[in-house]
Amino acid sequence: MYTAIQHLHSYWAYLVLLIVVLATFNAIVKLVGKKPFGAHDFRISLFALIVMHLQLLIGLVLYFSSPYFSAFSEQGMGEVMGNDTLRLYLIEHPTTMILAIVFITIGYSKHKKKLSSNKKFKTLSIFYSIALLLLLSRIPWQAWF
Ligand code: HEM
């Protein structure tokens, strides 16, 4: 079970990164180009929200089924915070990814309330860019590649 979830989380991460990059650059390019907001823009922004939320669910199952999790009880918080790998997987990665999911969710729901194309793209550009930077900052690149 753990290995299957870990592989799913690892492969789904490629889709997450691809869709969030596409949705972010789509919003920035169309904002700068003063383009009208259309069905395609709505769909790519919604798809980014969906893949992120699914990765959150997969991540939560992985978090509690991962052998890393037992470090809390076996080694204690001090050891976890002092160990780079444990701190990344148990603290930094989950909290930063959840924060990125919060920014995508706020950005998506805020853009829907905007009436003009310019304001929709501006909202998506700001919130999705922050989320993308958070994603890039705490993905375990070494383990992933
Ligand atoms: C939403 C964006 C997320 C992305 C793009 C992402 C991406 C990744 C990647 C690429 C890895 C390394 C996989 C490998 O070793 O091949 C990983 C590992 C991990 N992720 Fe995430 N993750 C996300 C969210 C989360 C969340 C929300 C949690 C927990 C609440 C989480 C928990 C973990 C854990 C525990 C590992 C290490 C698992 C292990 O090797 O035992 N992730 N993640």
Give the amount of beta strand, in percent.
under 5%
Rg estimate, integer Å: 17 Å
Main sheet characteristics: none
Bound molecules: protoporphyrin IX containing FE
Explain what you see.
With 145 residues, this protein is mainly α. The chain has one domain. The protein contains six helices and no strands. The longest helix has 31 residues, at 2-32. The protein is elongated. The mean pLDDT is 97. Protoporphyrin IX containing FE binds at residues 6, 9-10, 13, 16, 52, 55-56, 59-60, 62-63, 66, 68, 89, 93-94, 97-98, 101, 135, 139-140, 143-144. The site of protoporphyrin IX containing FE has 25 residues, from helix 1, helix 2, helix 4 and helix 6.
Summed up:
With 145 residues, the chain is mainly α.
Please name the defining characteristics of this protein.
6 helices; 145 residues; mainly alpha
List the helices and strands and how they pair.
Blueprint: H1 2-32, H2 39-65, H3 71-82, H4 84-113, H5 117-138, H6 141-144
Helix pairs in contact: 1-2, 1-5, 2-4, 3-4, 4-5
Bound molecules: protoporphyrin IX containing FE.
